[in-house]
Amino acid sequence: MIKAIIIDDEPLARAIVKEYIKPYQQVSVVQECGDGFEGVKAIAQHQPELIFLDIQMPKINGFEMLELLDHIPAVIFTTAFDEYALKAFEVNAVDYLLKPFSKDRFDKVMTKWLKDYQPNDKTNIQTLLEATGEPPQYINRVVVKTGNNIRIIPIQDVHYLEAADDYVKIYLQEASFLKKKTMNYFENVLNPVQFVRVHRSYIVQVQQVTRIEPYEKDNHIVVLRSGVRVPISKTGYPKLRSILGL
Amino acid sequence: MAAAIFSNKRTFFFYSLCWAIWIITQAWVIYWFGFTWQVAFIDSVVSNLLLAIAQYALTNVLNYYRPRKDKGIYIFVLNLGIAAIWISAVKYILAHIMVQDTHYLEFLHHSLPIRFGIAFLMTGWMMMFSWVHYSAEDKQAIEKRKEDAEKLSREAELYKLRHQFHPHFLFNSLNSISSLVTTNPEDARKMVHQLADFLRGSLRNENKQQVSFKEELEYLQLYLDIEKVRFGHRLSIKIEKDADCVDCLMPPLLLQPIVENAIKFGLYDVTEMVIIHIKARLDNGQLVINIQNPFDPVTTTTQHGAGFGLSSIERRLYLLFARHDLLETIVNGNIFTTIIKIPQ
Predict the structure, then answer these.
(1) What would you measure as the largest C-alpha separation in chain A, in angstroms?
(2) Which domains does chain B have, with CATH numbers?
(3) CATH architecture observed for domain A2-131
(4) Best of A7, A10, A12, A52 to disrupt the B interface by mutation (most B CBs within 10 Å)?
(5) Rama region for A53: left / alpha / beta (φ>0; ψ in -120 to 50; rest)
(6) Cis ω on the peptide bond leading into residue A136 (within 30° of 0)?
(7) B162 and A CB contact within 8 Å
(8) Residues of chain A with CATH 3.40.50.2300
(9) pLDDT by residue (tens digit) across B66-116?
(10) Hey, is the C-beta of B176 within 8 angstroms of any chain A C-beta?
């Protein structure tokens, strides 16, 4: 049995997916969710193979929800017209249904998915997530999961970011969070006027910088308001100086 | 106010040149009457410089004050007065300079009516010229404002077509209908009619300059009915209006985009029940409409006031009423309030 979850903030929109999926005996809808928070919980609980996911939803959008998952199931996006997201779908060959969608269109997507479906093949979604949120829009918040809680961090609260293996550690005033992303991803989606990559492993918020100090011979470190000292690389040094207008 | 005629360097040069030629001409005429060049030039320079300065001042006055068309007599009287003052001044000054030349003084005395006549004509001509110039400039400015207003209303109409039933709203509504068709055909049909009424309402209103607050509320209600089908489980709308508001006039299609904005932020910023509170009252001859929605000041992704939504409302209000203070937004905890004022 294939388990599926429908995540959409409009009950009628969920109803139509449920109706269309009825003839597929091998698929059962184990839960319906009205927002991303419920979605994260339900996915952790049921470990579904497939989710139908709306993008525009309360608090956190569909993409942000996916970022919070430890294991991303197969996703079929259901969305009204959204030019930017559409392009990302097509580029990454991810299945999507444009609202309002017909039974024919739904069957086509489902048939293709059932035919291609292989457990643990998430490459497309991963690349899609890397692609969304890139310019033209810089992100203004980061969504992280801590235990069972989901936390939305406004980007101005982030003091600095540090590379940590497959993760990036996001440092705030009082805490730090891990996010499964790359430093390159953050370098791309953070506004370069606000955040500077001073080192291969560090990005700092310019507002947090209090001073730059020499360190050993030829090297420098940047001191943040909180007193934290972050190393600067040879290429990071001129970048930071020019942002600070030195 | 139009730009002063002589703010343009070329016009000022041309004006001076005309006077120079005229000064030489008059000097030559006086010389022809048998006076020396010196006397001729003193006469010509003194009288015409005075006239040139008077006219220069006059054109500037006309820039600030122009009697209405049916008060043309004022201009005539003003013209006579200036010519009279001028002729007295000329007589007084020249008589003092040429106090010994009796022959000249006699000539001066006899030529006063002609001088007066010429001055009167020249001043009259100058006034007419300024009048035409300033009226044309004013007309142009009015035309331009009218053009801008028309352009903006076109833009607003375009916006309405692009955003108000912006793709999301229209497609999601159609999706709801598609869903209702099997589960609840009655409601599906009802929603088709609601959507049609809403679309028709915006088509009907887009050509109007003003509608009553009551009409605008009815149009808003059409929109709210659809949103309630989609989000009825989370969305609650409260409308409070004072009785004296309903007949107030306002620009059409103004309220709905603001409420749509409020609903969007409410629905996407919080996961709980969303209450949109609309309050209308008449205050000091202004229709004041408050729209409140919950939002999350920390995590909101949307910037209020940015984007076409509220800024187009602000621009429309400015073009209609030439005021920047008619749209206001207030953040109070997790309540966002949009206030619009419509002068009556």
Answers:
(1) 71
(2) 5-145 (no CATH), 165-343 (3.30.565.10)
(3) 3-Layer(aba) Sandwich (3.40)
(4) A12
(5) beta
(6) yes
(7) no
(8) 2-131
(9) 777 677 788 788 888 888 999 999 989 988 888 888 888 888 888 899 999
(10) yes
What is the distance between the alpha carbons of residues A126 and A71, in angstroms, rounded to a whole number? 11
d(CA A223, CA A3): 51
List CB contacts (< 8 A) between A141 and chain B: 299, 301
pTM over 0.90: no
User: Per the CB < 8 Å rule, is A80 touching B168?
Assistant: yes
Cβ of A100 within 8 Å of Cβ of B175? The answer is yes
CA atoms of B161 and A184, how far apart (whole Å): 40
Of A27-41, A113-127, A135-149, A214-228, the range with the lowest mean pLDDT is A113-127
Query: Which pLDDT value is given to residue B162?
Result: 47
Q: Is the complex ipTM higher than 0.85?
A: no
pLDDT tens, residue by residue, B156-181:
655 654 455 567 888 999 999 999 99
Residue among B168, B271, B298 whose CB faces A35 most closely: B271
CB contact under 8 A, A56 and B168: yes
Instruction: Choose among B172, B183, B271: nearest Cβ to A99.
Output: B172
**What region does B322 belong to: left with phi over 0, alpha with psi -120 to 50, or beta?**
left
Residue in B162, B174, B228, B301 to test binding to A, most A beta-carbons within 10 Å: B301
- Flag if A11 and B233 touch (Cβ within 8 Å): yes
**What per-residue confidence (pLDDT) applies to B268?**
84
Nearest CB partner across the interface for B179, out of A12, A58, A59: A12
Which candidate, B139, B131, B138, places its Cα nearest to that of B72?
A: B131
Give me the residue from A82, A99, A141 closest to B301, CB to CB.
A141
Residue A129, pLDDT above cutoff 80: no
Give me B311's structure tokens.
Answer: 């800024």
Q: Which residues of A touch B230 (CB under 8 A)?
A: 10, 12
Q: Where, residue-wise, is CATH 2.40.50.1020 in chain A?
A: 153-243
What is the rounded CA–CA span in Å between residue B8 and residue B257?
A: 46
Q: What residue type is assigned to position B8 of the chain? A: N
Task: Write down the pLDDT at residue B306.
Answer: 42
Q: How many CB atoms lie within 10 A of CB B332?
A: 9
The superfamily in CATH containing domain A153-243 is LytTr DNA-binding domain (2.40.50.1020)
Query: Does residue A100 sit at the B interface (CB-CB below 8 Å)?
Result: yes
Q: What is the mean pLDDT of chain B?
A: 84
Whole-number Å distance between alpha carbons of B190 and A64:
35
With beta carbons less than 8 A apart as the criterion, state whether A92 and A124 touch: yes
Chain B contact for A172 (CB, 8 A cutoff): no
